[in-house]
Predict the structure.
Amino acid sequence: MDRRVVVTGVGAITPLGNNIETTWEAVVEGRSGIKSVKKFTPDGLDSQVAGQILDLNAEDLISKRDLRRMDSASVYALLSARQALTSAGLKDYDASRAGVIIGTGLGGVESLLSQSHVIAERGPQRADPLLIPRFLADSPAALVSIETGFQGPSISVAAACATGAVAVGEAFEMIRAGRIDMALCGATDAGIVREIMAGFCAIKALSRRNQDPEHASRPFDVSRDGFVISEGAAVLLIESEEHAAQRGARVLAYLAGYGHTTDAFHITAPIESGDVAARAMTFSLRQAGVSPEDVDYVNAHGTSTVLNDITETKAIKRALGERALTVPVSSTKSCTGHLLGAAGSLEAAFCVLALRDGIIPPTINLEQPDPECDLDYVPNVARKADLHGVMSNSVGFGGHNTALFFIKP
């Protein structure tokens, strides 16, 4: 089977807001969600800025009993999934034909590290019996399945910072193949902890613009010095076109193409030519049945690291040819920071909303473009546009390259 797939719901918890619409409004307005680290004392870290979720009162939304069983990553995923269901107006459904594909780059690392300190100081007998369910990488997907009753495949995928995009893509393939009729898909991460930030600092990956947090994430700018770590989740509800039509659902976008390649080169660095990443983009276009001329906007991975931004620019040129010289490209990580595993699904949601609203979000903090980054990056101010086809790129440590292609309904 080769069924058409539609997006009918979106939800997110991000440093810019506790729902997708608040987040999207902030991104379109070009506001930054980056602040000095407040979740712990960052003394001694080279990077002390992050995109944090600081005003979410989870106790008002989830029972205390259930919260005890959840890492923050699971909380973010569950609340995002609820939003997606509400957005889609989903009420009655065949649970046996509904799946949950929600990944995570880090798993419940916040809970694991917290308990490691307890065990080190007070002994192994003081370990929390709820540590394992809080830590397991499949817990976000499992908890969403339990709440919704979805009884189709429930899995967690891991592809580093491409995780969210891969989760959406794999759910898309399941629906196209007829295995399920709909899925909640996306990713979550909650990695604003000292040990994770120290690890990224050790490989010189994070921005050190500590005195100017709002300008620390600056993709494609010549003065960029690393990405800004963030936390959050984004979940989409996708369905077969027939299933959505049967229940009279509003279609936000068609998900038409998915490409996923692997560099097979280095655990952290991309192939500098961008050739393999370009193939992922080409695959997504081919599956969607479109050409480079049909691409009206590219949401770039755009991390604000020196190597990624140059390599991705090369990849876009290789995939789109002459069209790359005129197509608008932007990095919303300039506003949100890098949500690690959740970045890809959040940026997929942004592509859906860009199609809905006819607007291209900006790349903020782009003051002096790197000469090697010479595309139209929509600097600093959003741009109205007649959008019909948009692409979302995601890249991850381990060599993952993912592209999703969306079409306006």
The longest strand covers residues 253-262. The radius of gyration is 20 Å. The chain is about 35% helix and 20% strand. Residues 72-88 form the longest helix (17 residues).
